Amino acid sequence: MNHPRDVGARKYFDSTYPDFASDLRNVRIGLCTDGFRTVSGKFGGQYSCWPVMICVYNLPPGLCMKDPYMLLTLILPGPDSPGKDINVYLSPLIDELKSL
User: Fold this and answer.
1) CB 75 within 8 A of CB 50
2) What DSSP character marks residue 6?
3) DSSP classification of residue 77
4) Does the residue 2 lie in any domain?
5) Could you give the number of structural domains in the chain?
């Protein structure tokens, strides 16, 4: 895969919603997250941190995954991973993106 536009899911989306795909002004974004655990404290207590980032896919392949075009939107801290409750944290972000 050289660019996210080469993925089969995008081709399926384009065929399902041709009106969206035909307008070049529509912004395509990817929402990605991955958690990591840090060891902190005197006794090695564990702490979980989940950054949530948005990548803009309308850019050329050389810019798509570069730092200036990846937006850090949320950081979900806590002792454990958000798991199934991640939608509670993401719903305000999704609402704001829909309004944009």
Assistant:
1) yes
2) G
3) E
4) no
5) 1
Residue 43, pLDDT above cutoff 60: no
Q: Is 65 helix (H, G, I), strand (E, B) or coil?
A: coil
Q: To the nearest 10°, report the CA torsion of 11, 15, 18, 21.
A: 0
In a domain, 12, yes or no: no
Owning domain of residue 94? 29-99
b/e sequence 36-72, b meaning 16+ C-beta within 10 Å: eeeeeeeeeeeeeebebebbbbeeeeeebeeeeeeee
23: pLDDT strictly greater than 60:
yes
Q: Which pLDDT does position 55 carry in this prediction? A: 87
| Dihedral sign computed on CA atoms, order 15, 18, 65, 3 | positive
Span 25-45, mean pLDDT? 74
